[in-house]
């Protein structure tokens, strides 16, 4: 696995990923921060210099920032990684630790084409299982026009349509607990009864009224 | 209501706890077991006062009816109450009441109850409805899987209830043998935590799981546990959780779901039923026609008569059209229409129109007139005068501030009929399950004032009795939401008594004056609400509400409910009327009333521009604002108030604190600090609004 990993890792991606994560947390990353945040401990200051030379990062007073191309490539890496996490946890039901290492490998070998297909399949999810946001790709912008997603948010179903819940990106535990205790959880069939002024859905014999913001976090397969 | 109830309460005597999801028929079973009645309703949050009774031969077994819960990991105050009761009565037998057609959800709760380690029995209620919907449950199979007795029942028809009583008497409850198997990482964690803090043992596995799920509320006030240990454990757990893709609670819920799916796959069969009702056909056109009839009746009723003249007679066509509409369309279709953005509003309009006529015109007009002039003025007061002779006793009972002529007369002849009729109508609507549906239409309005549609329930109840509504605000999940709703209830929601008295005064003032008062109250509701929503710290909860199926109301249920609420009013409110009267009487006798008048004169006369006599009205208004309004009515009758003065006085009185009882309940519910803040805020708002109104009317030279 280690050899395999070394073979596949492009250090540029690792650096861009680390910078992305730090910037996402609102930090101004210096060299030390970037090296610390990388989980594989494979980065050095030389590699950082190299990435700057290649024109992906700029160094300003000890703080690294993206260039235009760097931000694009970094976003793509993050997007692949987080989409892979979604796919592995929610659709393939994998456990945490194995999922993490697989997701790391996915981020390096997924082609843009395949990435967009996965994104479409998953219904263009906005967050990863950890709750971090997934940068949107071209497929998300043209979501309506180009492909019919296999998986859509519950909020995307029309009145009278039924979907089987596949996964929920609900950010808050209490909401998740509540939905579960009311019988709305992965595996259940949900029928949309009405969309305005509130969403009304049927799950078996239970009728629930929900706000749009809640149903947008529930992803279903049309049945 | 902490888990560490003293040993006396938790140990001795046999206790039965009725536990279950909301709206599964616990209160009906409670009534059967104990012969006592609790307010049965089919929306969550009605069992706010814990009902207790006794059952069994010799009545030595205590039965406690708990508020409905979906989970023992509580989201709102009323859900906490149930969990705390389970831990308070550690040796109690739990009778879980389940809605058979929603068996999956009930079993989620069963698995949690099993983790408390309590002995229990499962009652599958509403078996008839389940069968009608193609849900076939093999109760014997279920019993053997769960390891507890499972009883089939149809509570409203009293079927199976004797078996419940029998099982309680025979002491056949067992600790369930079914156990949820969690992923290794959680099972390991449970062992770890239990090893570190052995004091958690008495909470059962659920206690440890609660801690892992990040809920420490369970252990509040338990002195046997080291607070530091619990905090250290909790923070270690949350650190660990951050590394995981999904929180512990997610994995727990998933494992529980798998367990329930496994149980139902072995014991429940679902037959697919063909849904014929959604297909187009002649019935559908008939249904559409019935909507037209309802619309026409409503327009005709509103068009031909001005609202002030409306009454029982002109509202009959609307009532008839509503009944016709429901019978043609069928309950299931009405069920959907009440949620519809257009039809739903139409239904709401018809209902508000009918309620207005029934409560506002019939009860507050005809009925009050009958009781006041017919009963009190002609019979009771002359009789009291005759009996009490001359002098002090006569003044005390039948004088200007007499206990009978003022205290009882107001409370029994003016307020009681209005309140009883309101509760009758409210109970009927409540029994149909209409109110949860109403929240679908009102959610956006309530979002404007910083809460969600769930606040509809306490606010509508507030039109009946604000004190009850403050209790019912427990169904709201966050402190912020409760504070907002309680403030708005205290300030801008007139209770039925207040409304009734105000309405009888409205005949004294013009339509523009009525509209002015309404406009002021509605805009204060919106402004204060949205400001609180924006600036009050704390969070607002999600709007997720279960809608119980709409059903035809049961007369016996409504009668019992109205009776219970009327009794509650008599016991809770009438003493305040009498106390307030006695206070005024004493002040008058001792000559202190004049001094009090002078003391509040700067406010009543200076700021509000009202005659000095209104001072005593505002003093009784402190006890109950409807009593104050009734006092205004009397002042107007004796010609002491001008049109403008009535408008100002009514505005102030409408915004006043509802009553002393509501203040006391408020202190109990949200603590003395918040209650006092709300109290002073409401008082300041009402007087400031009245003062400004008086000022503007003067400057603009308007006269009503």
The helix/strand class of chain A is alpha+beta
Q: CATH superfamily name of the largest domain in chain A?
A: Winged helix-like DNA-binding domain superfamily/Winged helix DNA-binding domain
Number of strands of chain A: 8
CATH class of the largest domain in chain A: Mainly Alpha
Count every beta strand of chain B, where a strand is a DSSP E run of 2 or more residues: 9
Mean pLDDT of chain A: 80
CATH topology of one domain in chain B: Rossmann fold
Proportion of helical residues of chain A? 40-55%
Largest β sheet strand count, sense and barrel closure of chain B = 6 strands, mixed
Average pLDDT metric of chain B: 81
H-E order of chain A: HHHHEEHHHHEEHEEEHE
Question: Mind explaining what this structure looks like?
Answer:
The complex is a heterodimer of chains A (223) and B (704). Chain A is of the alpha+beta class and 223 residues long. Chain A has 2 domains: 148 residues, Winged helix-like DNA-binding domain superfamily/Winged helix DNA-binding domain (Arc Repressor Mutant, subunit A, Orthogonal Bundle); 72 residues, Ferrous iron transport protein A (FeoA) (SH3 type barrels, Roll). In chain A, strands 3-8-4-5-6-7 form a 6-stranded antiparallel β-sheet. In chain A, α2 crosses α3, α2 crosses α5 and α5 crosses α7. Chain A is elongated. The N terminus of chain A is likely disordered. Chain B is α/β, with parallel strands linked by helices. Among the domains of chain B are: 163 residues, P-loop containing nucleotide triphosphate hydrolases (Rossmann fold, 3-Layer(aba) Sandwich), CATH 3.40.50; 87 residues. Chain B is 65% helix and 6% strand. Chain B has 30 helices and 9 strands. In chain B, strands 2-3-1-4-5-7 form a 6-stranded mixed β-sheet, with helices on both faces. In chain B, β4, α4 and β5 form a beta-alpha-beta unit. In chain B, α4 crosses α9, α15 packs antiparallel against α17 and α21 packs across α30. Chain B is globular, with a radius of gyration of 28 Å. Chain B starts with 6 loop residues before the first helix and ends with a helix. The interface between A and B is large, with 38 and 48 residues. β7 of chain A pairs antiparallel with β9 of chain B, so a sheet runs across the interface.
């Amino acid at each position: 696995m280690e050899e395999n990993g070394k073979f596949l890792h492009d250090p540029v991606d690792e650096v861009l990923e680390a910078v992305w994560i730090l910037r996402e947390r609102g930090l101004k990353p210096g060299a030390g921060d970037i090296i610390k945040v990388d989980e594989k401990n494979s980065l050095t200051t030389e590699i950082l210099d190299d990435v700057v030379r290649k024109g992906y990062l700029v160094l300003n007073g000890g703080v690294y920032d993206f260039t235009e191309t760097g931000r694009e490539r970094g976003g793509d890496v993050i997007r692949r990684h987080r989409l892979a996490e979604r796919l592995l946890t929610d659709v393939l039901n994998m456990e945490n630790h194995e999922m993490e290492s697989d997701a790391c490998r996915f981020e390096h070998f997924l082609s843009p084409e395949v990435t967009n297909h996965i994104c479409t399949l998953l219904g263009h999810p906005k967050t990863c299982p950890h709750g971090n946001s997934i940068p949107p790709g071209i497929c998300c912008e043209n979501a309506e026009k180009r492909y019919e997603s296999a998986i859509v948010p519950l909020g995307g179903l029309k009145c009278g349509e039924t979907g089987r819940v596949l996964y929920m990106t609900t950010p808050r535990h209490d909401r998740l607990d509540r939905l579960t205790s009311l019988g709305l959880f992965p595996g259940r069939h949900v029928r949309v009864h009405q969309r305005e002024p509130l969403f009304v859905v049927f799950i078996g014999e239970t009728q629930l009224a929900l706000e749009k913001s809640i149903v947008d976090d529930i992803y279903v397969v049309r049945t | 209501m902490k888990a560490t109830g003293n040993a006396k309460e938790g140990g001795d005597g046999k206790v039965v706890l009725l536990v279950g999801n909301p709206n599964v028929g616990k209160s009906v079973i409670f009534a059967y077991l104990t012969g006592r009645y609790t307010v049965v309703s089919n929306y969550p949050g009605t069992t706010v006062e814990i009902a207790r009774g006794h059952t069994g031969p010799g009545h030595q077994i205590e039965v406690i009816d708990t508020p409905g819960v979906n989970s023992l990991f509580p989201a709102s105050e009323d859900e906490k109450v149930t969990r705390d009761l389970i831990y308070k009565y550690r040796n109690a037998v739990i009778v879980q009441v389940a809605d058979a057609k929603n068996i999956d959800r009930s079993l989620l709760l069963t698995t949690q109850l099993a983790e408390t380690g309590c002995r229990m029995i499962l009652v599958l209620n509403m078996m008839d409805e389940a069968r009608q919907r193609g849900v076939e449950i093999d109760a014997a199979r279920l019993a053997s899987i769960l390891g507890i007795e499972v009883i089939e029942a149809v509570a409203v028809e009293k079927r199976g209830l004797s078996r419940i009583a029998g099982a309680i008497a025979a002491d056949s409850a067992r600790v369930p043998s079914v156990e949820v198997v969690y992923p290794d990482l959680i099972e390991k964690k449970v062992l770890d935590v239990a090893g570190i803090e052995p004091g958690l043992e008495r909470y059962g596995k659920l206690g440890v799981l609660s801690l892992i799920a990040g809920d420490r509320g369970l252990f509040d006030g338990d002195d046997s546990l080291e607070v530091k240990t619990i905090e250290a454990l909790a923070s270690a757990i949350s650190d660990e959780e951050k590394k995981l893709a999904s929180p512990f609670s997610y994995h727990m819920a998933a494992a529980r779901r798998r367990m329930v799916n496994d149980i139902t796959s072995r014991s429940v069969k679902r037959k697919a039923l063909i849904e014929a009702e959604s297909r187009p056909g002649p019935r559908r056109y008939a249904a559409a026609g019935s909507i037209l009839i309802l619309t026409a009746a409503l327009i005709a009723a509103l068009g031909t008569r001005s609202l002030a003249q409306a009454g029982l007679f002109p509202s009959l066509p609307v009532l008839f059209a509503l009944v016709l509409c429901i019978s043609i369309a069928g309950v299931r279709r009405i069920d959907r229409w009440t949620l519809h953005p257009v039809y739903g509003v139409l239904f709401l309009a018809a209902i508000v129109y009918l309620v207005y006529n029934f409560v506002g015109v019939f009860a507050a007009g005809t009925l009050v007139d009958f009781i006041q002039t017919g009963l009190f003025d002609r019979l009771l007061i002359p009789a009291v005068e005759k009996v009490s002779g001359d002098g002090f006793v006569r003044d005390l009972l039948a004088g200007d501030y007499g206990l009978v002529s003022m205290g009882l007369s107001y409370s029994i002849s003016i307020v009681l009929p209005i309140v009883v009729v309101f509760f009758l109508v409210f109970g009927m609507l409540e029994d149909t399950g209409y109110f949860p549906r109403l929240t679908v239409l009102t959610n956006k309005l309530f979002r404007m004032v910083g809460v969600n549609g769930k606040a509809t329930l306490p606010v509508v109840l507030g039109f009946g009795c604000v004190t009850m509504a403050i209790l019912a605000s427990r169904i709201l999940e966050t402190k912020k939401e409760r504070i907002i709703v309680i403030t708005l209830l205290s300030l801008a929601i007139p209770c039925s008594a207040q409304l009734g008295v105000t309405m009888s005064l409205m005949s004294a003032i013009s339509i523009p004056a009525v509209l002015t008062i309404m406009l002021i109250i509605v805009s204060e509701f919106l402004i204060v609400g949205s400001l609180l929503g924006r600036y009050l710290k704390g969070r607002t909860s999600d709007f997720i509400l279960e809608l119980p199926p709409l059903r035809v109301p049961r007369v016996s249920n409504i009668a019992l409910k109205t009776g219970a609420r009327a009794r509650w009013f008599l016991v809770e409110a009438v003493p305040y009327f009498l106390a307030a009267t006695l206070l005024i009487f004493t002040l008058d006798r001792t000559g202190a009333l004049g001094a009090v008048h002078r003391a509040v004169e700067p406010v009543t006369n200076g700021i509000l521009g009202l005659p000095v006599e209104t001072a005593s009205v505002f003093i009784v208004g402190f006890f109950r604002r409807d009593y104050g309004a009734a006092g205004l009515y009397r002042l107007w009758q004796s010609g002491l108030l001008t049109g403008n003065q009535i408008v100002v006085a009514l505005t102030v009185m409408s915004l006043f604190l509802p009553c002393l009882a509501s203040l006391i309940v408020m202190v109990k519910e949200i603590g003395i600090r918040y209650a006092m803040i709300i109290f002073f805020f409401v008082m300041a708002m009402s007087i400031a609004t009245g003062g400004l109104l008086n000022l503007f009317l003067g400057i603009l030279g308007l006269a009503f």
